[in-house]
Specification:
By secondary structure, this protein is mainly alpha-helical. It is built from 20 helices and seven strands. A three-stranded mixed β-sheet has the order 3-2-4. Strands 1-7 form a two-stranded antiparallel ribbon. The longest helix has 28 residues.
């Protein structure tokens, strides 16, 4: 039997020959950063823009002293507040960022060679990026809190970041599994939205939060099943298919919301929510305790999902086979791996993770369902997966970055910073564009991602 990759064609139907494998994009030589100007200089230029923003936007307009608090109310162990001169802090962050931009430019130019070789490795590049973002955030916070009577609570910011990032993290993990197995999952948005809808109804009707969580997970898997059937069995264009599924779920949930949830809101759209669970001893650790160990069950599920996906992909036979199917399905089939079965299982199972992320919207946070309440977070989760270079840990860290911007704009809008609220609401989406266009660099996904596999 002949195997091939690519959608079925007329030549295959005639039986004369197997369809030719599509030409896959060539790999860049080791150490190459891309041929164009953008591929080489996007990161240094972006770093410099951040540095200039720290100085020109924040430093010049900063006033007074910025005070940062690291304690929550009724905390058993406390940390003293930190007071910094706002303008000087912004200038220092901007200067450090410009130094990092110059260092990044030297790495791109390859001079000096020893520094470019040592610092230009992926881990160091990520460290430089992290420092630039950290400096930008510190400058922003110093500018916004300068002269304010109330201290800026860092613990509340971090705790809210993790809570807001739960759907993004779970959606990004879903995208990692699907992409690693060779299927582009644009339908994460629909999985989140349907999971939120079904979790709200199930919890409202039965009164059981855990049953609502299960129903939300199954709803996400239902959308994943439709994605798997049409993408794998019928070789439908996966990007178009994902957009269609998102539109279908948006229209369906919107119709059902108006038809049954509004008239019967008390019985169908009034679910309880999970309360935070504090882990003894760990939850009392200053700063990190309230952030990591005093949260709803959804955050603990996210920990388990991250560990399971990471270990599963890189330490188990299932992960080896999954990556083989996503990189070279013909070779995987040759050694006896069921390519189509593996793709079906992975896509449908990953939908459970996205469904749990969707359930968080209703029974983990808001307590009711609203039309389009996912608000594009499925697409941001997809961007986080790309920014994280198709790895579970990288995708989760990128999701935390986007969740951080969401929580930050919420806090900034409450302390009356001189920025219009509409502009603050744009922050998560602007960060998505800046990160993907200017910072992510050249990322190569799995070779067979989005390429249907046809056996003839």
């Amino acid at each position: 039997m002949t195997t091939s990759t690519g959608p079925a064609s007329g030549s295959a139907a005639s039986g004369s020959a197997a369809p030719a494998s599509p030409k896959l994009p060539a790999l860049l030589p080791p150490g190459s950063s891309g041929a164009g100007w953008g591929g080489r200089f996007a990161a240094p230029v972006t770093f410099a823009v951040f540095g200039l923003a720290d100085i020109a936007l924040f430093g010049i307009h900063a006033r007074g002293t910025a005070t940062f608090a690291f304690n929550q109310e009724f905390a058993k162990a406390t940390v003293p507040n930190l007071a910094l001169p706002a303008a000087a802090t912004c200038y220092a962050c901007g200067a450090l960022t410009l130094v990092l931009a110059a260092l990044r430019l030297l790495i791109v130019l390859g001079w000096p060679a020893t520094v470019a070789t040592a610092v230009g490795r992926r881990g160091w590049r990520r460290l430089l990026l992290g420092l630039v973002l950290f400096c930008f955030v510190v400058a922003l916070l110093a500018w916004s809190d300068g002269g304010q009577a109330i201290a800026f609570n860092v613990v509340d910011l971090l705790s809210g970041t993790f809570s807001d990032s739960i759907p993004l993290m779970l959606g990004a993990l879903t995208g990692v599994i699907c992409s690693r197995t060779g299927v582009i999952n644009i339908a994460i948005e629909g999985q989140l939205l349907l999971g939120a809808f079904c979790a709200a109804i199930a919890t409202s009707v039965t009164g059981s939060l855990w049953l609502g969580l299960v129903c939300g997970a199954l709803a996400g898997s239902l959308v994943a099943t439709l994605l798997a059937v049409f993408a794998i069995a019928y070789a439908v264009d996966q990007i178009v298919l994902g957009v269609v599924l998102n539109t279908l779920v948006l229209g369906l949930t919107g119709y059902l919301y108006n038809a049954i949830m509004i008239p019967f809101g008390n019985t169908l759209n009034n679910p309880a929510t999970f309360t935070p669970v504090k882990i003894p001893l760990l939850g009392d650790i200053p700063i990190i305790g309230p952030v990591f160990f005093d949260a709803t069950v959804f955050l603990y599920i996210t920990y388990v999902a991250l560990a399971g996906v990471h270990i599963g992909l890189f330490r188990t036979r299932w992960g080896l086979r999954t990556r083989a199917v996503g990189e070279h399905p013909v070779a995987a089939d040759t050694v006896g791996i069921g390519v189509l079965a593996m793709r079906y299982r992975n896509v449908i199972a990953s939908g459970l993770i996205a469904g749990i992320g969707g359930a968080y919207f209703t029974i983990g946070s808001v307590g009711s369902f609203g039309i389009n309440m996912s608000s594009g977070e499925g697409y941001i989760a997809l961007a986080a997966m790309i920014f994280g270079r198709y790895t579970p840990v990288g995708a989760v860290l990128a999701a935390l970055l986007f969740g951080f911007t969401t929580q930050l704009q919420s806090i900034l809008s409450s302390i009356n910073v001189p920025i219009q609220s509409n502009l603050l609401l744009l922050a998560p989406y602007v960060v998505t564009i800046v990160v993907v266009a200017g910072l992510v660099g050249k990322v190569r996904g799995p070779r067979a991602e989005g390429v249907p596999y046809v056996k003839s």
